[in-house]
Design a protein that fits this description.
This protein is of the alpha+beta class and 431 residues long. It folds into 2 domains: 183 residues, no CATH class; 234 residues, paralog of FGE (formylglycine-generating enzyme). The chain has 12 helices and 11 strands. A 5-stranded antiparallel sheet has the order 1-2-3-11-6. Helix 2 packs antiparallel against helix 3. It is flat and about 75 Å long.
Length: 431
């Protein structure tokens, strides 16, 4: 049966290539309407917001320039004058990290934070229009198929798939561009344990770039009498989990993760905690696409963004793609015959269970392992308090099913619950 389907699809593709379908009137009409709707509901508002923001920034620069001149501060006055010229020439505001006077750097930071909020709002306004377009394209595919216009139906289907991929790439590119401007090197923090934190647009926190390691948790356990030691030698069936210091700590409950954060906060004199569900969505780059209205619970968002994965590609990840640490051929081969489980056929990340943190490619914000390795605790109740179970995000080394690996998937567990594939990531509130 599968062979017959593949043969038929191959025939359609060959027919499409031969027919050279380059346009479908109904499709063109939908895309024109989509462009108009985006401009009316999102583009115009965003453009007006940027114009107002640049005007406010220019006004603030003029005041700062006058103050610097009145104070006889030549260096500051020259810096402000150059910035005023940039605005007059309609140039982009430089990144906060670009060397200039401290006061101007601060002004740039405020500007880019405001610009990031406008980008986020534009995404929220655009997302429902994109979703409506995809629904309309699905209906058009069905209509064309029923009418016997198979080549045109296939054309629309391929265009819809391309649209989804481009939307995901655009969101990642936008997040990366905003991060470049709002997350300068001077905004990163490395604490006494060597945990590095970077800003994430759309949030008021810095995210640790890696999952909490065994060595981080061991420092806490050594100073905290009564800490359970299940994390020291966890096993997944017959396999050792997190055997080395640079692997993520596992078998840790949410309450234990919070205890670690409280200890670290006291030690460092700053506020550390686990992220909220929304902050985690910002980190993985889907907060704008989810566009969740106030009061939406995490379980209502789980799995809703189909086809969007942390590695930014399609499912399954290609052999050699190294999209992250998931249930792969290595896990399958190392398990006892009586313990076999589902795995991604043809995919091998090289680790049967956990891998060292930061082993795979980071996302555009510089964050590692937001997909795979271990599920990460969040601070939100999964369904708004109907039970006391909390959210985990990101998938683990034991996961292979597409619906479990989506960026939007949430699972949940009791705050005292733990598994060998549960871990956590820490965020730092802005000092």
């Amino acid at each position: 049966m599968k062979f017959a389907v593949k043969l038929f699809l191959g025939f359609l593709m060959a027919t499409l290539a031969q027919a050279k379908v380059t346009s479908v009137p109904e499709f063109d009409k939908l895309m024109t309407q989509y462009g108009n709707d985006v401009q009316l509901s999102a583009g115009a508002i965003y453009d007006a917001g940027v114009t107002e923001l640049r005007l406010k920034y220019s006004t603030a620069l003029e005041k700062a320039l006058k103050a610097a001149q009145d104070a006889g501060n030549l260096d500051a006055a020259l810096a402000y004058k150059n910035e005023v010229k940039l605005m007059a020439d309609n140039m982009e505001v430089p990144a906060e990290s670009e060397k200039t006077s401290p006061d101007l750097q601060k002004m740039r930071g405020i500007y880019h934070q405001s610009l990031a909020r406008l980008v986020i709002e534009k995404g929220k306004a655009t997302n429902p229009i994109i979703n409506a377009l995809i629904v309309s394209l699905d209906r058009l595919v069905v209509t064309l198929t029923k009418a016997g216009r198979l080549e045109e139906a296939l054309f629309v289907q391929k265009k819809k798939e391309t649209l989804g991929e481009e939307t995901a790439k655009a969101a990642a590119k936008s997040a990366s561009a905003v991060a470049t401007k709002t997350s300068p090197a001077k905004g990163t923090v490395t604490n006494s344990l060597g945990m590095k934190f970077v800003p994430v647009p759309g949030t008021q926190v810095l995210f640790c770039i890696h999952e909490t390691r065994r060595q981080d948790y061991e420092a806490f356990a050594a100073k905290t009498p009564g800490t359970k030691d299940i994390w020291k030698k966890p096993r997944f069936h017959n396999l050792s989990v997190s055997p080395k210091d640079d692997h993520p700590v596992t078998s840790v409950s949410l309450n234990e993760a919070k205890a670690f954060c409280a200890w670290l906060s006291k030690k460092e004199g700053k506020t550390y905690r686990v992220p909220t569900d929304y902050e985690w969505s910002c980190a993985v780059g889907i907060s704008e696409q989810e566009n969740a209205p106030a009061g939406t619970q995490p379980n209502q968002l789980s799995g809703k963004l189909q086809g969007v994965f942390p590695w930014g590609g399609k499912y399954p990840p290609k052999a050699g793609e190294l999209a992250g640490n998931y249930a792969d051929t290595t896990l399958h081969d190392d398990l006892d015959a009586t313990q076999k489980q589902a795995w991604i056929e043809g995919y091998s990340d090289g680790y049967a269970t956990t891998s060292p943190v930061m082993k795979f490619k980071p996302n555009p914000l510089g964050l590692y392992d937001l997909g795979g390795n271990v599920w990460e605790w969040c601070s939100d109740l999964v369904n708004g308090g109907k039970n006391d179970w909390y959210v985990l995000r990101g998938g683990g080394f034991n996961e292979s099913a597409a619906e479990r690996l989506l960026s939007s998937t949430r699972i949940s567990a009791s705050p005292d619950g733990f598994q060998t594939y549960f871990g956590f990531r820490v965020v730092l509130e802005h000092p």
